[in-house]
From TrEMBL, chain A:
Name of the protein this chain belongs to: Amino acid ABC transporter membrane protein 1 (PAAT family)
Keywords: Membrane, Transmembrane, Transmembrane helix, Transport
GO process annotations (BP): transmembrane transport
Annotated membrane topology: Multi-pass membrane protein
Family membership: Belongs to the binding-protein-dependent transport system permease family.
A GO cellular component entry from the record: plasma membrane
Membrane-crossing segments per the record: 27-50, 71-92, 138-161, 205-228, 248-269
Domain (ABC transmembrane type-1) ranges: 33-269
Compartment(s) of residence: Cell membrane
UniProtKB/TrEMBL annotation, chain B:
Annotated source species: Gemmobacter caeni
Keyword Signal part of the UniProt annotation: yes
Keyword terms, alphabetized: Signal
PANTHER family: AMINO-ACID-BINDING PROTEIN YXEM-RELATED, MEMBRANE-BOUND LYTIC MUREIN TRANSGLYCOSYLASE F
Residues in the signal sequence: 1-19
Domain of life the protein comes from: Bacteria
Annotated protein name in UniProt: Amino acid ABC transporter substrate-binding protein (PAAT family)
Length: 293, 239
């Protein structure tokens, strides 16, 4: 990065450290924080949408829709995350390629499955073998977002399902007696009130999601834990900046970074919770009313 | 006429795409001096140099991809990359699931490294998971302690978790030489495997032939030996 870093082996002390911490690899480490934050920013709303859909489906009066919602919740919640991240993703990837294969290469003669190998025609690869690395990375990232959303969506669905059932029936009945349609009751009364019941569960999920981001590496996305391990491991003279095993320092840094992320989240979620409890006929809402008196 | 033109244009386009086929090379990036991620975040080392030269000779466009050692064979089979170039020794067991090119690194010794000369190499010995060395340790009667990355196998010896580490001697040598006497070779060297080769899907015969031909040409004109000397020292076994 700096011109005096051209010959790292001649450097010492502070200069060495400065060059070391700004090497291309470290810049990769720093950008991986952005990757993780982007993942969180994209996944959280998507998972919430999946959850909302799942909860609405599970509550549906149409039996097949309700089964679908409930099966989604039960199945995904019961499967360990690691299985999801190893097998579901491979299956999804191969499923996409298989479908594209049927469309773009209808004349392909060879079998797609050859023993353990999975071979679609080269034009059906996603992304194409000839596309640049960035597309492969984006595709991996998209798969990660989708998988995280499905997994966390199922948990969110269960939380929201519970929260929707926790809204006092009397509230809904009152709305009905005012002549609101079921749709209006859902939109005007149920949804605004359920958040106060859903928030504790959803905030748990958010915290777990933050800590689950290292699973990204299973999907080939280089996340902060991957870089910390790679940078911290002992380096021989083959590297420009040889050093002994420094993983302890890198992981300490990660610890602090994760603690900061979760702490900031806690503060924000606390504020949100206070706002949602305001005026609610719950113990928390009652406590707020008394404190304000 | 218009349709004919369009068809020709399309044909030309797809033909062009096929000629400029990109071959993706999968490596581990954690096994210096064979392959590692240098300080610019790029794949470097002996295999980078050889791989780039092979691609040039085989007239292919190549792209480097890193993948965990654990899943390097399954990801080849599912088509995430086309070639494994990761210091992988040619063994009968691996040949059942993938096919190898001719070796580009001669059959080499594996060795034990410990932090004191009297270490018990029949005690707890660390090795990287899924390597021929791990198989050898398991059969030798020692207690095998497996790790996902090569670096962790050495760290286990340094912090006393394992009595010794068993790995390729060429990988261990720089660590021993640069440890200020903290690490040393113990016991005898062991010859394992049939050298290091490129791994291919078994159905990819054409690609394998291209690379084998390129390896043979590098062996013939001495460029491979020069690269071996550059990365592994003057006294390394040559072709």
């Amino acid at each position: 990065m700096f011109s005096f870093c051209a010959d790292p082996k001649a450097l010492e002390g502070f200069g060495w450290l400065l060059c070391y911490l700004t090497s291309g690899k470290h810049l990769g480490f720093y950008t991986s924080f952005l990757t993780v934050l982007t993942l969180l920013a994209v996944t959280a709303p998507t998972a919430l949408a999946f959850g909302f859909g799942g909860a609405m489906a599970a509550r549906s009066h149409i039996a097949p829709v309700s089964w679908l919602g409930k099966i989604y919740i039960v199945m995904v919640r019961g499967v360990p995350d690691i299985v999801f991240f190893m097998f579901f993703v491979i299956a999804l990837d191969q499923g996409i390629e298989w479908m594209k294969h049927q469309v773009v290469c209808p004349d392909w003669k060879e079998p797609i499955r050859q023993g353990l190998e999975f071979r679609v025609c080269p034009q059906a690869k996603v992304p194409l073998g000839s596309s640049s690395q960035i597309w492969h990375q984006l595709y991996g990232f998209a798969l990660a977002v989708f998988t995280f959303s499905i997994v966390f969506g199922a948990f969110a669905a269960n939380v929201l399902y519970g929260a929707m059932n926790a809204v006092p029936r009397a509230q809904l009945e009152t709305a009905e007696s005012y002549g609101m349609t079921p749709r209006q009751v859902f939109r005007r009364i149920l949804v605004p009130q359920m958040w106060t019941y859903a928030l504790p569960g959803l905030s748990n999920l958010w915290m777990i999601l933050i800590k689950a981001t290292p699973l990204l590496f299973l999907l080939g996305v280089k996340d902060i834990v991957y870089w910390a391990r790679e940078l911290g491991s002992a380096k021989t003279q083959a590297y420009a900046y040889p050093h002994p095993d420094w993983r302890l320092w890198y992981f300490l840094f990660l610890l602090v970074a994760y603690l900061c992320m979760t702490r900031v989240s806690e503060i924000l979620l606390g504020r949100l919770s206070a706002r949602l409890n305001h005026g609610q006929a719950t113990a928390a809402g009652e406590a707020m009313r008394r404190a304000a008196q | 006429m218009k349709k004919l033109l369009l068809a020709t244009a399309l044909l030309a386009l797809t033909g062009g795409a096929a000629a400029a086929q990109t071959v993706r090379l999968g490596t581990e990036g954690a096994y210096p001096p064979f392959n590692f991620i240098d300080d610019n975040g790029q794949v470097a080392g002996f295999e980078r140099e050889v791989g780039d030269e092979l691609c040039k000779r085989a007239e292919l466009t190549c792209e480097w991809v890193t993948n965990d050692w654990d899943s390097i064979i399954p990801n080849l089979q599912s088509g995430n990359y086309d070639v494994i170039i990761a210091g992988m020794s040619i063994t009968d067991e691996r040949s059942k699931v993938i096919s190898f090119s001719e070796n580009y690194f001669p059959p080499a010794a594996s060795a034990y490294v410990a932090s004191d000369a009297g270490a018990d190499i029949k005690g707890v010995v660390s090795a990287q998971v899924g390597t021929i060395q791990a198989g050898y340790v398991a059969e030798s009667g020692a207690t095998l302690l497996e790790f996902a990355t090569p670096d962790e196998t050495i760290a286990a010896v340094r912090n006393g978790e394992a009595a010794a580490v068993f790995a390729d001697k060429d990988f261990l040598k720089p660590y021993v030489e640069q440890s200020n006497g903290e690490l040393m070779f113990v016991g005898d060297d062991v010859e394992l495997g049939g050298g290091v080769g490129l791994g291919f899907r078994q159905s990819d015969n054409e690609l394998r032939e291209k690379f084998t031909a390129a390896i043979q040409s590098m062996k013939a004109d001495g460029t491979l030996n020069a690269a071996l000397k550059k990365h592994f020292g003057e006294d390394t076994p040559l072709f």
